[in-house]
Amino acid sequence: MRRGLLVLAFGLVSLIGFGQGQQGISVDKIIARVDNYYILRSELEEIFQSYKAEGQRTPERCQLLESLIINKMLLAKAEIDSVTVEEGQVDDQLDGRMSYMIQRFGSEKNLVEAYGKSVNELKTELRQQVKDQAIVETMQQKIAGDVKITPNEVRRFFNAIPKDSLPYIPSEVEVGQIVRLATVTKEQKDKLRQQLLDIKKKAEAGEDFAMLAQIYSEDLGSAKNGGDLGFAKRGAMVSEFEGAALALKPNEISDIVESQYGFHLIQLLEVRGAEYHARHILLRPDYNRGTDITEATRYLDSLHTLIEIDSLTFAQAAKANSEDKMTADGGGLIVDPNTGLARIPLDASMDPALYFALDSMKVGDVSAPISYRTEDGRSAMRILWYKSKSEPHTANLRDDYEKLAQIVLSNKKNNALEEWFKKAAGDVFISVDEEFQNCQIFGLAPKENQ
């Protein structure tokens, strides 16, 4: 088994899942099967191309196929063992994935335009894949969650590295942040509400709701379909939207509904069991010109004062007050997404805005409120805490124990997973197409068990 591909390959599948079908692939083929789970050639090819697009070292297709089969094995065994995940966990991970996609595309509007689908439609399409990933992670935890390491194991690992091969560690920093979102001005809210009220009057006077959605809605993905969002399962939409939609009778139009996405007019079309069919017209606030940072700045100024006079630690203030969910629970510390550690390389890979802010600070400083743009493109303010900075150095046990321990633990967990896969391979039906006969995946012969 090629270590490290397991989680990464599945993450890429989840990341690009709703992009399938946009590549113009007209001929497809099942290249592997694990019980009732199938792997398509297009799926493998998309992941292969995604590695290139991400600028990463591109693994061999055989390695990627093996990783996909491993994930399907985990799903198949989870089904056999009745392993499930909570829907709330899926919701949280789905929100995180959408935030990441919005960040990659620069804004929610750009994401919607790129895929020609609304955010809710994308979330609906992506939900099952996110749920599958959560099940895979749960299975991995079940298999290797009890694996532990000792300081002696870390020491032996470090001592086994030739001295002339020890990596050079660049300067790293620990940085905390407390984020407060800008508020949409009352003037802009009133303006958007009035615009939607005017549109509602047109619909009630007989104008076609679908045509009005095409003209006015800023949810570009659904606007081209007359605002139609299709059938949605209960719990798939944000609570404000769903509550308003389900309170309507078929063909009735709602009052103005405010959600995290903006302001909606909703028309319920049909309810079918646990699903409902609705369409909407969405107007979004202008987060560049239609927001007010006054309250956010005042709030952070007060926190800054409390921290400076030692009435409150930065970590306590972040946990209780930061509106950035990704960092608040960790006391505001910003985590390097590549390592999962709260140490960020102080180099060109750092967010430029953060880099220049730190350049004018000293270790221990807490900044005054500074402007900030969230991952989903919203205007905000934040204060930064420059907690620590390490000097560039050759890796050593004292300064880099946490990184080394992470590697040792990862290797040990992979060993546990490998042992599990060897045993589990006999419990599920696995078939690999003869096209990949040279891959020698788990030592299987092509079309084995068929």
Automatic annotation (TrEMBL):
Keywords: Isomerase, Rotamase, Signal
GO molecular function, one term: peptidyl-prolyl cis-trans isomerase activity
Transmembrane segments annotated in the record for this chain: none
Signal peptide: none
PpiC domain ranges (all copies): 170-270, 273-370
SUPFAM superfamilies from the UniProt entry: FKBP-like (SSF54534), Triger factor/SurA peptide-binding domain-like (SSF109998)
Descriptive protein name: Peptidylprolyl isomerase
Organism ancestry: Bacteria, Pseudomonadati, Bacteroidota, Cytophagia, Cytophagales
